[in-house]
């Protein structure tokens, strides 16, 4: 008689709802193109409406939102940890169960980067990909909280959240290669970033360096490296990766996001450094005068 798996592994990778999952427009909530477009459009419209309302009413002070920011950060961090653990354990189980099918042509790392042609969105890995897709809508709630607290609406944040939801939908719809590593990297970074934001939101001391920015740069670097790996595996080595059309479109979205991120970084951080350098001599002169 086979030994039963430990409870944690059972509920993260062996539960019948996980093993028997299948991405379906009829059975999976939020699995239609219309839902995706309506959701993103609603998110953009409501964010713009909230921002313009505060501008029109000339509300210059931040609106107190109590513990909402801390609770959102805590929920995002715990959700990201759960998805990370779930897809990590499920990936190991999926490789164990399906390796007989592709082991002659791929290594496990190549399978993570390049799904075999004909892969369908079903099973453990795609269940957690679906949970990650749903978590993108929880992620969007950060925008109204930021608008209320700081009275600032960033085009980069709007596009980042919209592209993230759209890309995760493409992963499921076309069984896109590379999504496992993308989810692992993203959830690991989100778990750290939102844990740090929760830490600072409850009044504890923050890091002496831009922690969130460094995590975002590390995530972008990992994504770029994985995209390069998919490119070479598909076009030069393994003769085809599943969902390559969606991957190419995803590359365009990520390139636009990378351009916006670099522009945002230059304006926010490089500009601040230049300002500090220009202020430093005047401060030293004032001290000399004293």
Please describe what this structure looks like.
The structure is a single chain. 28% of the residues are buried. The chain has 290 residues and is an all-alpha fold. It has helices at residues 7-14, 16-19, 33-56, 68-102, 108-113, 124-139, 142-150, 155-173, 179-201, 211-237, 244-289. The chain is 75% helix and 0% strand. It is built from 11 helices and no strands. The longest helix has 46 residues, at 244-289.
List the topology elements.
Layout: H1 7-14, H2 16-19, H3 33-56, H4 68-102, H5 108-113, H6 124-139, H7 142-150, H8 155-173, H9 179-201, H10 211-237, H11 244-289
Helix pairs in contact: 1-4, 3-7, 3-8, 4-6, 4-9, 6-8, 8-11, 9-10
Largest sheet: none
Q: What is the ordering of alpha helices and beta strands?
A: HHHHHHHHHHH
- Helical amount: over 70%
Overall pLDDT level: 84
- E-strand count: 0
What is the global morphology?
A: globular
- Sheet/helix structural class: mainly alpha
Specify Rg, calculated over alpha carbons: 22 Å
Indicate the proportion of strand residues.
under 5%
Poorly predicted ranges: 279-290
How far apart the termini lie comes to: 85 Å
Number of helices: 11
């Amino acid at each position: 008689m086979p030994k039963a798996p430990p409870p944690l592994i059972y509920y993260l990778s062996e539960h019948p709802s996980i093993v028997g999952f299948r991405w379906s427009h009829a059975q999976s909530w939020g699995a239609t193109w219309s839902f995706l477009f309506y959701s993103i459009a609603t998110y953009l419209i409501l964010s713009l409406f909230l921002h313009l309302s505060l501008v029109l009413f000339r509300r210059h002070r931040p609106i107190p939102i109590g513990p909402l920011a801390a609770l959102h950060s805590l929920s995002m961090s715990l959700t990201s940890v759960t998805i990370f653990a779930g897809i990590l354990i499920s990936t190991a189980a999926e490789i164990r169960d399906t390796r007989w099918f592709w082991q002659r042509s791929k290594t496990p790392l190549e399978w993570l980067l390049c799904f075999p042609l004909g892969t369908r969105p079903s099973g453990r890995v795609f269940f957690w990909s679906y949970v990650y897709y749903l978590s993108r809508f929880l992620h969007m709630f950060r925008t109204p909280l930021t608008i209320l607290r700081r009275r600032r609406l960033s085009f980069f944040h709007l596009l980042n959240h919209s592209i993230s939801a759209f890309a995760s939908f493409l992963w499921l719809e076309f069984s896109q290669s590379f999504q496992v590593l993308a989810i692992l990297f993203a959830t690991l970074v989100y778990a750290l970033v939102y844990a740090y934001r929760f830490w600072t939101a409850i009044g504890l001391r923050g890091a002496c360096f831009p922690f969130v920015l460094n995590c975002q740069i590390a995530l972008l670097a990992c994504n770029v490296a994985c995209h390069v790996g998919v490119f070479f595996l598909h076009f030069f080595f393994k003769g085809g990766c599943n969902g390559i059309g969606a991957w190419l479109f995803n590359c365009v979205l990520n390139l636009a996001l990378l351009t916006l991120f670099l522009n945002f970084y230059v304006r926010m951080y490089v500009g601040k450094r230049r300002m500090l350098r220009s202020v430093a001599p005047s401060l030293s002169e004032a001290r000399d005068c004293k």
